[in-house]
Amino acid sequence: MELALFVVLAVIAVIAAAGVVLSKKAATGALFLLLNFCTLAGLYILLNAQFIAVAQVIIYAGAIVVLFLFVLMLLSPGKEESQDRKPYIRVFAVFLAVLMLGEVGYVAFTGVLSGTPGQYTPEKIAEVGNVQAIGQVLFTDFLLPFELASVLLLVGIVGAVVLAKREL
Amino acid sequence: MNISSLNLTAIAPQIIIIITALVVLLAELFTGRKSLLAYLSLLGIIVAAIASWYIWNGTEQRLFAVPMFQTMAVADGYSLFLNLVFLVTAALSVLASINYLVRERINHGEYYALLLLATGGMMLMGSATDLMTVFLALEILSISLYVLAGFNRADLKSGESALKYFLLGAFASGFLLYGIALIYGATGTTNLAAIVDFLKGTGPMRGTYLFIGLGLLLVGFSFKIALVPFHMWTPDVYEGAPTSVTAFMSVGAKAAGFAALGRLLLYAFPTLLGDWVWALAVLSVLTMTLGNLTALAQTNVKRMLAYSSIAHAGYILIGLIAANEAGMAGVLFYLLAYAFMNVGAFAVVIAVGREGEPNLELSDYAGLGSRQPLLAAAMAVFMFSLAGVPPLAGFFGKLYIFSAAVQAGFVALAIIGVLNSVVSAFFYLRVIVYMYMQKPIVEARPVLAPPLALAIALAVLGTIGLGLLPTPFLTLAQQSIAMLFGA
Amino acid sequence: MNQLGFPLLSLIIFLPLCGAVVTLFLRKEAVIKWWALIVTVANFFLSLPLYFYFQSGTAEMQFVERIPWMLSLGVSYHLGIDGISLFLVLLTTFLIPVAVLSSWTYITEKVKEYMILMLLMETSMVGVFAALDLILFYVFWEATLIPMYFLIGIWGGERRIYAAVKFFLYTLAGSALMLVAIFVLYFMNAQATGRPTFDLLELQKFSVPLAAQTWLFLAFALGFAIKVPLFPFHTWLPDAHVEAPTAGSVILAGVLLKMGAYGFIRFCLPLFPAAFAYFVPLMSILAIIGIIYGSLVAFSQSDVKSLVAYSSVAHLGFVVLGIFALNAQGLSGGILQMVNHGLSTGALFLLVGMLYERRHTRLIDEFGGLWKQLPLFGIFLLIVTLSSIGLPGLNGFIGEFTILVGTFQANWIYAALAATGIVLGAWYMLTMLRRVMHGPLDKPANRQLQDLSAREIVVLVPVVIFIFLIGLFPNLFFGKMESSVDTLLSQTRATISMGEPNP
Question: Complex ipTM, two decimals?
Answer without folding.
Answer: 0.86
